[in-house]
Amino acid sequence: MGELATAESERGPRPEGQGEVGTPPLRPGGYDPADYAGYVASSAEEAGVSPLLVMTVLHNEAYKPHHPLLERLWQWWKPGASFGVANMHRATFEQVRRKHSLSQRWRDLRDDPAFAIRAAALHLKDLDQSLPGRHARRYTRDELLALGYNAGERNMRAFARGVPPGPMARSYLRRFRAYRGRAAAALEAGGRPHDAAAR
Questions:
Q1: Using CA atoms, how far apart are residues 21 and 14, in angstroms rounded to an integer?
Q2: In sequence order, which residues have a C-beta less than 8 Å from that of residue 1 and are 6 or more positions away?
Q3: Which runs of consecutive H residues, i.e. helices, occur in 61-166?
Q4: How far apart are CA 160 and CA 69, in angstroms?
């Protein structure tokens, strides 16, 4: 019982009215980030970032099945693969873990969607703190943070200075813009307000 209580406290507060967070379905195509709207809202609030940003990133990262069994098999085939519903790579996670004194491990991302969402929100917070106040006008701040989530902090800062993104980053940005409306609807349906204005 003590171990369970400790694990619960390490995950941070659960959203009001939310039960145990469910595991994404095993069947490919059955995962919907909207199922985690409550956890997105609470994690974004804790990190001080836009819930719409976090939810849109989750939609962008929903291109593969996120069931723990499938992620274990994927890692066996590709050891450097990312884990969890927010697709976080190990090196990125370790930076977040050290900075925010998280006691859970990288492998826990695949089994605990709430923790994966919390880690993603904290990473977006860290990216936000490293982004200059002035940036290229063709991007919103949230778009740059999403690009940073995908392409890394150094590239994000280059994009902010006006360096054009490569094909993969451009594709990520197109999908981010396309998913924004769906992410906003998911947050509204989850009963939480969203940050409607693009920052």
A1: 9
A2: none
A3: 68-77, 90-100, 113-130, 141-151, 153-161
A4: 38
What's the average pLDDT block by block, 10 residues per block, for the chain (199 residues)?
Answer: 36 41 58 90 96 97 71 66 85 96 85 92 97 89 97 96 95 97 93 50
Q: How long, in residues, is the chain?
A: 199
- Look up the pTM and report it: 0.80
Q: Measuring CA to CA, how many Å separate 185 from each of 43, 87, 113? A: 18, 22, 20
What is the distance between the alpha carbons of residues 75 and 191, in angstroms, rounded to a whole number? 35
Exposure string over 68-102, b if 16+ CB within 10 A, otherwise e: bebbeebbeeeeebbbbbbbbebebbeebbeeeeb
Residue type, 143: E
